[in-house]
Amino acid sequence: MKTGTYPGGTLPAHPGPAGGDTGRRSCATCGAPQTATARYCWHCLSQSGGGLHDHSATQAPVTPAHRIRYEIMPAAPARGVDRVRGLVPREVIVGLGVIALLSVLLRGPAYEVPESIGDAVRLATSSHAASEDAWRDSLADAGIEGEVAIYGADRTSSFVLVAYGARPGSDRDALAQLGDAWAGVSGSTVRSTAVQDSRRGGFGFACAPVSGGGFRSICAWADPRGFVGGILSIDSGRGETLGIAAQARLTMV
Fold this sequence. Notes:
Layout: E1 3-6, E2 9-12, E3 25-27, E4 33-34, E5 52-54, H1 81-87, H2 90-106, E6 116-117, E7 120-122, H3 126-141, E8 146-153, E9 156-165, H4 171-186, E10 189-190, E11 196-200, E12 203-211, E13 217-223, E14 227-233, H5 238-252
Antiparallel strand pairs: 1-2, 3-4, 3-5, 6-7, 7-8, 8-9, 9-14, 10-12, 11-12, 12-13, 13-14
């Protein structure tokens, strides 16, 4: 197939009559070359009658509409993360990160005192509430800000849960700190020479017998989330207190 050129690109030319003679006529609409006997333009299908341009004539050339020059506009820049980074100063981003970190560090220990531990429930009588407040105030005087809750059944106290925010440490450190503070609260003494490291329910604890103050044993733990927990049993031995502490810790996770 022959090709013909005209402004705006290269078009394949109509085969024309034998010998390839296309004459000197072209389509007035698109400018494609035409044969001498063509009635319709082979390229744009416009009617050739009166529409074909005779190059031998002296008329001015006609510029086809589709040959008007145009340009492709460049794509708009993406409004993504790069543009946002360019608009927000780095100091602002760093400042927001510091604020978020401080909010995590200052929001306090990640624990909540449960309403029940195993079969025991938190006792809510006025006398028990008064005892909790008194023990809480005594711990505060010793520099420990935390929670104290009394549990039991049928209004009979069985054990006390103590929890307060502290830096993560060993379970023995938690027991020593809580034991010293509780000695000033209730007059109880932790027998430090009989401390045992124990595990129950996948957790570690430090347990010891207690003398005086109406308590018999204690089990404490240092939670990596930033608090110390302890169970002080009134009438249970070290083994049973360990089971209660494991239930309490599991409830507080």
